[in-house]
Amino acid sequence: MTKPDLTKFFHPESIAIVGVPRKDYRFGGLSFMDKLLKAGYPGRIYPINPKAQEILGFKVYPDLSSLPEVPDLAMVSVTAPQTIDVLEECGRLGLRHIHILSSGYNEIGTPEGLELEARLKAVAKEYGLLVIGPNCMGPYCPASGLTPWGAIPGINGPLGLISQSGGLVQRLTEYSASLGLGTAKAISMGNATVLDVFDYLEYMAEDEAVKVIGLYLEGVSDGRRLMSLVREVNRKKPIVFWKGGATEVGAATVSSHTGAMAGQGWLWDFFYRQTGVVHVRTMDEWVDALMALAWLPAPQGKGVFLMGGGGGNSVANGDFCIEEGLEVPALSEATMAVLRRSVPQVGSIIGNPLDMWLIFMNAAHTVEVLEMGYQDPAVDMIVVDTLIVRKSFHMPEQADPYPETIEYLRENGLKKPTVFTVDSEGGDPELAARGAKLRAEFGRAHVPVYPTFQRAARALAHLYRYYADLRSS
Predict the structure, then answer these.
(1) Within its chain, how far is the Cα of 461 from the centroid?
(2) Alpha-carbon distance values, 262 to 104, 252, 265, 383 (Å)
(3) What is the DSSP letter of 237?
(4) Residue 390: what are its φ and ψ, rounded to 5°?
(5) Is the CB of residue 326 less than 8 Å from the CB of residue 378?
(6) Coil, strand or helix: which one is 355?
(7) Of the candidates 193, 188, 80, which has an alpha carbon nearest to the alpha carbon of residue 137?
(8) Angstrom distance (rounded) from CA 131 to CA 122
(9) CA–CA separation, 324 vs 47, rounded Å?
């Protein structure tokens, strides 16, 4: 069976937006057109509205047949019943790549909605149309300027995102972009009436721009096929999988969202074990795992070297690692000998965890200890627990050491998986803003950074388990 070519969805040179109102800015054709213009989409845009002459400075056409060319992509935002006529017009013109934003189909659960979705599928089959949706945000690709939603104009990067939820994948592109983690391609697929998760997974598995796949699903029509395909793709590229509808309440909500059946929880547990995907449960965990898998090399084991400051923090951080299934090994005697000579005995804890307050003040000390960790055979991964100086701390005013640390990491790379934490939580808005700024600076150097140690430990646990499962499969 020939795989559908989805390239024009992500790299269209021309787009027709069917259903652009003359005024009353609201979600739909007009808002999508506006976002494309603000993002600097370089291709040709054709708004369609039989009752308008000009919108946002663009000539408006009454229908697709009156356009000067057959566009590469049609974005359809008319009422559900009207989409059938639009699809038939697309078929007659040979316009095969279509995104249907409109809702009002299977997801509303009425006889009329079910009938419309069946008609949509039949028309697509008759003309050989490739349809994303309905009831979805559609394609997203910063590299081509196709960013009508999500982070605008967005950041090109290693992520390939497939989601039944438009809101969640839109949030993910914004969230990851704020950390410097870009997206190669994203799909909000909605009801997936024609093209479905299998088509998108197969496409992204072969796409060289995609290094890591983020998948959000609420339900699927063919669980056996999904398990087989996900297992195959996951061996090539990590898949970070968030399953919606995991509880009875969530499952009940799924049917009114995309019309999908959520399935039994125990079946999905079996699915995770059989496929080896990275299973996450929240937006934060989704982003954290994607960042680790996109930017970090494969760890050789689960031994973590903890660098930071504060005796209590060191104890708690060690506990977090153990709870996530990682290890906090004793350092080699060679490393310990160097640390005994270089780390002040007063106010420090020499070992692993390493409580060394100097790393908060001097980048050279941070680099020196990092290099020791890279050379130590007991160390597989490193977490540097940093801090932002609070008013209550007994520390002098000093130059910020982190730009120098970031530059070292940018120039020398990460010889072993290395992440940083920037603790700026706790309710202080000034501290939170400074923390967000610093995390973005680390992210622009492609160094994973987390706001809490717990999140860093879990991300490293996901990283370790993915590669451990890969080696054992």
Answers:
(1) 18
(2) 20, 8, 9, 37
(3) S
(4) -90, 160
(5) no
(6) strand
(7) 188
(8) 12
(9) 52
Sequence-separated contacts (24+) of 352-355 with Cβ below 8 Å? 352/305, 352/306, 352/328, 353/306, 353/307, 353/308, 353/314, 353/315, 353/317, 353/318, 353/328, 354/305, 354/306, 354/307, 354/308, 354/314, 355/308, 355/309, 355/310, 355/311, 355/313, 355/314
How many CB atoms neighbour CB 472 within 10 A? 7
pTM, full prediction: 0.93
Place of tokens 């999908």: 260
Residue corresponding to tokens 């070992």 = 351
For residues 131 and 200, the answer to whether their CB atoms sit within 8 Å is no
- SS3 label, residue 394: coil
pLDDT tens-digit profile of 107-158? Answer: 999 999 999 999 999 999 999 999 999 999 999 999 999 999 999 999 999 9
Give per-residue pLDDT as tens, 86-115: 999 999 999 999 999 999 999 999 999 999
pLDDT tens digits, 294-325: 999 999 999 999 998 666 678 889 999 999 99
Count of residues in the chain: 473
Q: Is the dihedral of CA 174, 20, 33, 186 positive or negative?
A: positive
